[in-house]
Design a protein that fits this description.
Largest sheet: 8 strands, mixed
Strand content: 15-25%
CATH architecture: 3-Layer(aba) Sandwich
Strand order of the largest sheet: 3-2-1-4-5-6-7-8
CATH superfamily: NAD(P)-binding Rossmann-like Domain
Shape: globular
Distance between the termini: 45 Å
Number of strands: 8
Oligomer: single chain
Number of helices: 7
Length: about 220
Amino acid sequence: MGPSSLTDRDLRQRAIVPPHRLADCRATVVGVGAIGRQVALQLAAMGVPQLQLIDFDVVEAVNLACQGYFEDDVGRTKVEATAEQCHRLSGRLNIETVASRFRRSGPVGNVLLCCVDSIDTRRLIWQAVKDRVRFFSDGRMSAEVLRVLTVSDEASRRHYPTTLFDAGQAYEGACTARSTIYCANVAAGLMLAQFTRWLRGLPLDRDISLNLLASEMVVG
């Protein structure tokens, strides 16, 4: 398949993902574990032109089933392994990898998807980027329960900080404790669904909780 035949790679999504709006997006994914890796792959497949991946961690055997890494990725940095797959999905993607912890003063894109494990880290990221990004989404997961929070207007901007509880009151079960790849994929899909609604100028859901085991969904 030659380069000219790739011009239609996004043909079937153009009515849902406006190419001119997507072209203006510089996406940052902080944390490429269970949810973040799936978010990055979906963004790459969707055709985001610029993608920044931030994560200090390396792939371990315990990450394979729940995060979708390959067996020969063990020992590599997560950002390197994820970037490789993103490039396979979109050869023209301009991708930057940052194999370190999130730094408050570090550059980020105008779209940020937060996929980290700790409330303290979420609070740090929010304080650092709340006035610098146009779209912000936070994905949280424990086993088969997920929560997606999205910030795109003043109402959601007021709501999001109320979810940043003290560590002792935080959402039970860090992603590193109990994770399932299918729940991570659903969470990533919900985050990207909010993103594409934002691209189209549609109303967003600022707070979604979903329990896959109980088949219960709450939209706030």
